[in-house]
Amino acid sequence: MPVEGQPLDRATATARFAATARARRAAASLTQEEVAYGSGLAVAEVSRLERGLRDPQLWTVIRLARGLGVEPAKLLDGLR
After folding, report:
1. What pLDDT, on a 0 to 100 scale, did the predictor assign at position 79?
2. CA-CA 20 to 30 A from 53: which of 18, 29, 32, 44?
3. How many degrees, rounded to 5, is the angle at CA 27 between CA 22 and CA 16?
4. Does a structural domain hold residue 47?
5. Closest CA to 12 of 47, 55, 45
6. What confidence score (pLDDT) does residue 1 get?
7. Number of domains in the chain
8. CA geometry: angle at 59 spanning 50 and 68, to 5°?
9. CATH number of the domain within which 14 lies
10. What pLDDT does residue 7 have?
11. What pLDDT is stored for residue 4 in this prediction?
12. What is the DSSP letter of 5?
């Protein structure tokens, strides 16, 4: 966890985004397939995002949030 006032590094930010996306999907009782369908993303892309293998672009965050039924900002919690 970064110290207050220190910049967040890319690897940590990606890992936190991935964990948040996984947790949001689990909380909604959705499968990756259901999220993919609701977001218009490929199942493989949802999987890569949840495993922290991809840094999402803004439009991907918006689409993923749509598939999860949350505001995009909810996926960015913890990235300060």
Report:
1. 85
2. 29
3. 30
4. yes
5. 55
6. 47
7. 1
8. 50
9. 1.10.260.40
10. 75
11. 58
12. T
* 35 is a domain residue: yes
Query: Two tokens at 54?
Result: 């991809």
66 CB neighbour count, 10 Å cutoff: 16
**Enclosing domain of residue 38:** 10-75
Distance separating alpha carbons of residues 52 and 36, to the nearest angstrom: 16
**Per mean pLDDT, which of 8-22, 23-37, 66-80 is the most reliable?**
23-37
The tokens for 11 are 């690897």
Q: Give the residue, 2 or 44, on which the prediction is more confident.
A: 44
What ranges in the chain are assigned the alpha helix state H?
A: 10-27, 32-39, 43-50, 58-68, 72-75
Question: Are 54 and 21 in contact, with CB atoms under 8 Å apart?
Answer: no
**4 in any annotated domain:** no
Report residue 27 as tokens: 């909380």
Over residues 19-51, the pLDDT tens digits come to 999 999 999 999 999 999 999 999 999 999 999
